[in-house]
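Ticket #4471: complex job returned nothing on first submit. Input attached below:
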Amino acid sequence: MLPIFRVQEEDAVRIRPDDLRLVVQAVFEGVGVEPDDAKLGADVLVTADVRGVDSHGVSNMLRNYVQRIRDGVVKAQPDWKVIAEQPSTATIDCDTGLGIMIAPKAMAMAIEKAKQTGMGAVTMRNANHSGMISYHAMLALPHDMIGMAMTAAGPQVLPTHGAVPRVGTNPIAVAAPAKHMHPFVFDIATSIVAANKLQLAKRLGTPIPGNFLADKDGRILSEPGLLPAEYQLLTMGGTRELGSHKGFGLSMTIDIMCSILAGAVPSGFSGRGPANHFVAAYNIAAFTDVEEFKERMDWYLAEMEATPPAPGQERVMTPGQEEAEMEVERNAHGIPLHREVVAWLDEICAELAIPRRW
Amino acid sequence: MLPIFRVQEEDAVRIRPDDLRLVVQAVFEGVGVEPDDAKLGADVLVTADVRGVDSHGVSNMLRNYVQRIRDGVVKAQPDWKVIAEQPSTATIDCDTGLGIMIAPKAMAMAIEKAKQTGMGAVTMRNANHSGMISYHAMLALPHDMIGMAMTAAGPQVLPTHGAVPRVGTNPIAVAAPAKHMHPFVFDIATSIVAANKLQLAKRLGTPIPGNFLADKDGRILSEPGLLPAEYQLLTMGGTRELGSHKGFGLSMTIDIMCSILAGAVPSGFSGRGPANHFVAAYNIAAFTDVEEFKERMDWYLAEMEATPPAPGQERVMTPGQEEAEMEVERNAHGIPLHREVVAWLDEICAELAIPRRW
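Support reply: We reran it on our side without changes. The output follows.
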């Protein structure tokens, strides 16, 4: 994540991950989520915070989830169902439950199928937000599998050359295990930036680079500046010349795999309602020797990170490296939450009679 | 493809696709390829030309393949083998054969597995060039499946912030069928541009945009200009701010799936030798109703293409649309080949005693 999207230390209160986990779990239970799901949901959010993915942690997401459950848009106790199944595949209807709680169950199915057949994939329609998408991909790692997860969300991003948003920020994540090194964890929005990160930038008053956003009519804002009142997101690359059509095509691919393959309307055309998801697991042992794979991953990551940097650059980083470094730091020193977020947590704890832990 | 990478009409000779197919097949046979494989290889190359993907057609590739076969780097008649197999997966050692001829066979295996289990995936090590990667993905379409194909190639592209190339241009393609509309065919290099397109730009003397390339030390060339004598490729996005780390991470993902998962050294570290590949097929019927899927794809493509354009832009295009339009034009009017390419074809036809057809 670019440093411009991080909370400043002087505005932050540091909270221990385990304390935050228990409070978030209690908040979910307080709005009607079953204890097991509440615990799972808390783990998804706090894992994002521990890994430094602040945009998808407690600060940005919990308030939103609570509001959507209270508004009746998201079911706290969904009656989700497998509606199609084959030895390697399944389709789930999520009954408007939260993706953060159903995607891990879908991933468990994919892993089980991958044990039997070599790989497994599960597509999920009619769900809600899935949090940090790499959480679900990473569930494959302890099973010596490669995990993949994708989400198709409501229209927020312009097609290349378009004036109206028709794709979501549609993230994709892939996780692959190493032996002694940190795992490879690739997790990106197909938009130039995750919408949540702009919320953080707004809160922090930080400037936005040129070619990052378009105005309300779809004209690309080529000069850097503060976040304008009205703006639209571009796909990764920004301009056509630098590859925005690649981000756009990848985003459409994700909507096809998550939505149309699950029998649903593409999320890019379904308003700000349900999100749809797709997870897959590849059993390394079905393809090659697991130990050799993991040792070669160690070597690949280490060699890549040792690439000589370009003039003026500090180092080459691999996907998952910064997040692994952040885990060490935040497990030791706590998660920095903006004072304003802590104030909201204090309020909801008082309202739901949850004992605060800080 | 940007128009800057197209051959100018005044430098072109138009050749009928079927004539070109027969000549290319004869050239492959002339250097020792079996007739069935020669026919398949010719179809991969000429299909790229017919679809307007000139960078991966006869002009750029055939001469290279012939040279590599004659140099003994590529085996004309490889003894490729399945070295691991599960109900949904397989690993192939390609014995340094051309990917253009082995990837279609791997895709046929993936399709067969997807009929049985819902999906199939085959990884291929120790191969050579796979041509236009979407050719292999599109083989899934007549089976009402979604096809995917990826290639990991030798080091040609800088990691984000790096000074030395450590990833290939590593393309990925996904093809999904529609009912009456053109199929969705997404096919991109994870570099900002395919290396082959720069060869075309050099031949055509066309200018290169800013933030497209780096100099020999890894400094990004921010101003537009002619192709410099020495340059290095960037991943898609160009700069870190506009998302080059996303292209870089996707490129590493592809090397993991194509190379390490197949038991091979990542292509980004294996010199300009073998390329490794990965293909997969998803059986739509395993997930949802096929007719509904294809009708919804029609609707999705049509609605996306009807997106109001941004000021100054002509239209929004979907992946595969331009290529489908080009198929109509080139099947009717022939494939424009640069005079210099036709001269080379004339030479090799004379050398191998192949009757020319133009």
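The first helix of chain B runs from residue 17 to 30. Closing as resolved unless it happens again.
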